[in-house]
Write a structure and sequence with these properties.
The chain has 8 helices and 7 strands, in the order E-H-E-H-E-H-E-H-E-H-E-H-E-H-H. The protein is of the alpha/beta class. It has a 7-stranded parallel beta sheet, with helices on both faces. The structure holds NADP nicotinamide-adenine-dinucleotide phosphate.
């Protein structure tokens, strides 16, 4: 398949105010894309706008909470009236939580599911009509290695990321006839603000994740996958090792993970 040309591609990036989303926005603008960057923190989006002003692409921002259906509708209305069609939707915004399921409230599960699952899924539902009008349209979902293999003390996050992957796999086949590609990128631990904004997590909880990639590297791999229409990308050797160990030697993997828990 021919490579996707991102020059002029009308692209929505969620979670653009930090980490992977910020880097995705910068690198898309470097390639001449037309990006609508969204997140809640207005000051961060304004700073990003200044960075992108010097790049070949175009960048606009719209701030709000993606878990709010009214904000999702505003995003769609903005794209429909300013662009008419959308070429790429990147569902990147997300948040984690750490700690035992038995010690957590049901509110934590609901909040993680809202931002990591219902928000991207319902945003995608809204955007399907404008994506159908797009040029070689694609939906890129940022999952996690934990979309493929769950680990202890992150049950809510794993559940949400597994759900995202199941939904994306189903949607990929449903949308193939309409030529909308559904891609999924699964990073492993990434050095971002992710571990500073954990939902309902005690300060004493530390992630036992090993290694970490830079958001810049994750964004490079995401864009390379988008250009090549790679349907599933699991990043990092450690991430791949965890996923394959979970498939081939699940009992031993459980025992090893149990030691970290
Ligand atoms: N960091 C990791 O180790 C890691 C590993 C695998 C996968 N991932 C995934 O990668 C994606 C990006 O994470 P990151 O590492 O770049 O973390 P990050 O730096 O914390 O970025 C998360 C982004 O999501 C936005 N966001 C969170 N809640 C939101 C809400 N309710 N409404 C709108 N925007 C919201 C945040 O912006 P505001 O706070 O300004 O709203 C921020 O821009 C997430 O889906 C995450 O699950 C991360």
């Amino acid at each position: 398949m021919a490579r996707r040309n991102l020059k002029g591609a009308r692209t929505v990036v969620t979670g653009a105010s930090s980490g992977i989303g910020r880097e995705l926005t910068i690198q898309l603008c470097e390639r001449g894309a037309h990006v609508l960057a969204t997140a809640r923190r207005v000051d961060r989006l304004a700073e990003l706008e200044r960075v992108c002003a010097a790049l070949p692409g175009k960048m606009e921002t719209l701030s709000g909470d993606l878990t709010d259906p009214a904000f999702r509708s505003r995003l769609l209305a903005y794209c429909a009236s300013n662009w008419g069609a959308v070429d790429v939707l990147i569902n990147n915004a997300g948040a984690g939580a750490i700690g035992r399921f038995s010690d957590a409230s049901s509110d934590r599960l609901r909040r993680v599911m809202e931002i990591d699952f219902f928000a991207p899924v319902e945003l995608t539902r809204l955007f399907l009509p404008v994506l159908r009008q797009g040029r070689r349209p694609a939906i890129l979902n940022i999952g996690s290695v934990l979309s493929h293999r769950a680990v202890p003390n992150k049950s809510e996050y794993c559940a949400a990321k597994f759900a995202m992957r199941g939904w994306a796999e189903s949607l990929r086949v449903e949308l193939a006839a309409q030529s909308i590609e559904v891609l999924m990128l699964s990073p492993s631990t990434t050095h971002s603000e992710f571990f500073e904004s954990l939902v309902d997590t005690k300060a004493s909880e530390k992630s036992k994740s090993i290694g970490s990639m830079s958001p810049k590297r994750v964004a490079q791999l995401a864009i390379s996958g988008l250009v090549r229409s790679k349907r599933e990308m699991i990043l990092s050797l450690g991430g791949k090792a965890l996923v394959w160990a979970g498939r081939l030697i699940p009992g031993l993997t459980d025992r090893i993970l149990g030691r970290f828990a």
